[in-house]
Amino acid sequence: MMLKRLVIATVAVMIATATQAEVLKLAVTTSFANSGLADVLLPQIKDDTGINVQLLIVGTGQALALGAAGDVDAVLVHSRASEENWLAAGNGTHRREIMYNDFVFVGPKNDPAGVRSADTAVDVLRSISNAEAPFVSRGDASGTHKMEQRLWEEAGLNPEREGWYRAVGQGMGAALNTAAGMNAYIMSDRASWLKFANKADLEMVFEGDPVLFNQYAYLPVNPEKHPHVKNDLAMQLEEWLVSDTGKALINGYTLNGERLFTFNAKVE
C-alpha cells in the first residue's frame, strides 16, 4: 500500500513538473492586450503546441526591461528603435516582425483644434498646440508614447510643461478613459480605440498618415545571458505565430467588420 502511494505521488509530481515546463512567460504591450487578439490566439496556441502562454501586460519599455532582466522568455512589442537597441545590448537572439496596424488620433466630436483638416500627423499636433486643446499622453515609455514623442519632436514642440498636456503614466485603456473624461485629444493604436467601450464624446479625427504605421515584433530573450529562460518554447511559439494558422487568426480578427491587425511575417 505504501509503495502504491509512493508511485502515485511520484507520478503526480512528474505530471506537475511537465505541466509547469510548458509555461512560457511573454511580455506584451497593453495595446496588444486591449485589442482582445490574445483571447483568440492563446487558446489555439495551447491546443496546437501544449504551451501555456502567460502574459505580462506592460508598456514596450517595461516589456523590454523584463526581457533584459530575464524575467520573461520573450517579448512582443512595437518600437523598432528600442527593440534594436535592446538586441544590440545582447538581451535577445533576434527580431521577427509578426503583424501591424496603425496609430490614429482621437478627439472631441466638435474638434476644437480643427485637426480633421490636417494633412499630416505632425500638423495634427501643431493644431492641438496652437489651440491649447487638452491632450492626454500615455507618458509611460511605451511604443505608443515613443511614437508620440517622435512626432512632437518633428513638429518642433515640447508640450510636457504646458497646462493643456497631461501625461498619465498608464496603459492605453487607462489613457483613453482619461481622455474620455477630459474630452481631450489622444493618440491611440487603432485596435485599442476600436475595442474601447467608453468613447463618451470622442471619435476618430485623423488617420492615414504613413508615419503612423505600427509594427509589432517578437523577440526571444537571449539564453546565453539568461540560461534559465525557455528558449525552446520561445522558438516553438514563434513558429506558431508565423504559421498559416497564426496568419489566419490574426488576419481574421475583426471588430464591427474592421480588421484590427494585418499579418506580415516573412517565411524564413
UniProtKB/TrEMBL annotation:
<dbReference type="InterPro" id="IPR024370">
    <property type="entry name" value="PBP_domain"/>
</dbReference>
<feature type="signal peptide">
    <location>
        <begin position="1"/>
        <end position="21"/>
    </location>
</feature>
<dbReference type="InterPro" id="IPR052738">
    <property type="entry name" value="ABC-Tungstate_binding"/>
</dbReference>
<protein>
    <submittedName>
        <fullName>Tungstate transport system substrate-binding protein</fullName>
    </submittedName>
</protein>
<keyword id="KW-0732">Signal</keyword>
<feature type="domain" description="PBP">
    <location>
        <begin position="17"/>
        <end position="244"/>
    </location>
</feature>
<dbReference type="Pfam" id="PF12849">
    <property type="entry name" value="PBP_like_2"/>
</dbReference>
